[in-house]
Amino acid sequence: MDLVSAWKATSIVFTGAFGILGLLRDFRDRTTNKVTVWGRISLAGILVSTALGVAAQLKETSDQEHTRLQTANQALALAKNTDKAVKDIQRSLSPLTPPRISIDLVVPCTVPWATAPCNNPALPTKDREILLKAFPFEFPVYLDLFKDQASADRYESKLSFDSDVRVEGNFDSSSSDFVFGPRLKDVWTIPAKELKLSASTTKSEITSNSGMIESILDLPGITAIVVVPLLGREDFVLSRICLLFPNGRRAGTAANIKRIERYSYRYVFPDFEKAGRDC
Question: What is the pTM of this model?
Fold first, then answer.
């Protein structure tokens, strides 16, 4: 039995004892009707033992509440550690590997050279070949990822040239994934409003990684700066980018892509549900 329990039991015993004492001895003098000495002793004893009993009960309740909170905090800490362990396992199962980069670039049909193909949604083979020759046979893409926006701001302002992850790839205009033509809501819409260039990298690699972004699961909320140096075709604007990973995960966006320089764009990776719709 701990001290508080013993204290509480003793208080109950003394309260009963002083109550019995009050019954066995006259509480008041029958002649003067004043409280006798034994009455005072009994009353004082009852009050003191009752107060000690109440104090013991309060102390016990306080200890129980402290124990309850301590148990709850331990359970919460255990749950957080378990959640962290599960996330760490999930992250280890989804390492950041070289993705296949898929992009859409668009150019308004108001641009003089784009007017003719915009008016012809089914580009003849000859015209298509002429248009494709306007593009480099192979052109690169550079994707820099930043854990925090401040680092991206410094990079964008050219105060720093370091990123947490750098991915480099190449687009090949002779690839079957290289598609160029009018962007129509349906095949009967003439003239079109935009020409769209869709392409996917034939190869890509992670050329640097600081260790701050190690898993695909780290990507939501990450700031990215992508450079597509399509030389001589400054009219094109990036409208969509999607990273396709070997494990089937997709990360990218078709919204909130901000053009910061002639060939450079900035965006923030959305959650995977949104990325799945955009990709």
Answer: 0.66
Count the Cβ atoms, other than its own, within 10 Å of residue 23.
Answer: 9
Query: What digits encode the pLDDT tens for the residues 99-108?
Result: 999 998 888 8
Between residues 45 and 214, the one the model is more confident about: 214
The pLDDT of 33-56, averaged and rounded, is 70
pLDDT of 185 reads 46
SS3 for the chain is CCHHHHHHHHHHHHHHHHHHHHHHCCCECCCCCCECHHHHHHHHHHHHHHHHHHHHHHHHHHHHHHHHHHHHHHHHHHHHHHHHHHHHHHHHHCECCCCEEEEEEEEECCCHHHHHHHCCCCCCHHHHHHHHHCCCCEEEEEEEEECCHHHHHHHHCCCCCCCCEEEEEEEECCCCCCEEEEECCCCCCCCCCEEEEEEECCEEEEEEECCCCCEHHHCCCCEEEEECCCCCCCCCEEEEEEEECCCCCEEEECCCCEECCCCEEEEECCCHHHHHHHC
| pLDDT tens, residue by residue, 52-66 | 777 777 777 777 888
Contact 252, 240 (CB under 8 A): yes
- How many percent of the chain have pLDDT more than 70? 71
Q: What is the residue extent of each domain of the chain?
A: 3-92, 96-278
